[in-house]
Amino acid sequence: MTATGEPLEIQVGERVGRVSGLLLRPPEPTAGYVLAHGAGAGMTHSFMEAIARALVTRGIATLRYQFPYVEAGGRRPDPPGVLLATARAAAVRARELLPSLRLFAGGKSLGGRMTSQAAAEGQLGELAGLIFLGFPLHPPKRPAIERAEHLARVARPMLFLQGTRDDLADLALIREVSGRLGDRATLHVVEGADHSFGVLKRSGRTGSEVLEELADTIAGWCRVV
Questions:
Q1: How confident is the model at residue 147, as a pLDDT?
Q2: Contact 120, 94 (CB under 8 A)
Q3: Which of 83, 97, 115, 221 has its CA at 20 to 30 Å from residue 10's CA atom?
Q4: Where do the H-state alpha helices sit in the chain?
């Protein structure tokens, strides 16, 4: 295994074929996280690699994976059915690789939303919870909550990590969404962060500090749910 992770393949289905994955596992893991990428970048994006490395130091194994359009070198996301099938296949593979661990799933932006939709449709089996790294609640400058309606059908605990400058999730609306979910939802607000969890220099914070905050919050939440 490299510092990036152990390369592997995930069989999505006969029509879709296989996609690549990366398993990063600490010596004595306490939990597993199936981590999907966002729409504009794949599993090897610097943020995806950094959060996986930060989590492994906290005892959390991660299985990152590609959606088929990224695997094929494309930029336009696959149809929803293909994305959901890939999230489901990744969860199945994670259970094979990490059979004794409590398993969480989710990911960055689009990857988190596709995972939650698959969970809402009962496609992911038993999960300990869902973790969203910037849930994409609406398009930029078009605030709405329709994209979150399916979350009412997710029976497991959910952790939302959202930046105060996220242009894909108005903070008041994401508070409303998490409030409607009651005890199932935990909202952690990252001060000054945008949708990519970047912060401005004038904030006095660094990207590394934000990353540590994200990893600490995820690890702490996984221990108590």
A1: 97
A2: no
A3: 221
A4: 46-56, 68-71, 80-97, 110-120, 171-180, 207-224
The Cα 91–Cα 42 span in angstroms is 17
How would you list the strands of the sheet with 17-24, edge to edge?
Answer: 6-13, 17-24, 60-65, 31-36, 102-108, 129-133, 158-163, 185-190
> pLDDT tens, 108-167?
999 999 999 999 999 999 999 999 999 999 999 999 999 999 999 999 999 999 999 999
| Torsion angle (degrees, nearest 10) of CA 3, 189, 59, 198 | 10
- Identify the residue whose tokens are 């510092």: 3
Q: What residues in the chain have per-residue pLDDT under 70? A: 1-3
pLDDT for 2 equals: 60
Q: Is residue 145 a contact partner of residue 176, using CB atoms and an 8 Å limit?
A: yes
Instruction: Answer yes or no: are the C-beta atoms of 83 and 67 closer than 8 Å.
Output: yes
Closest CA to 63 of 124, 120, 146, 134: 124
pTM of the model: 0.96
| Structure tokens that stand for 44 in this block | 């090897």
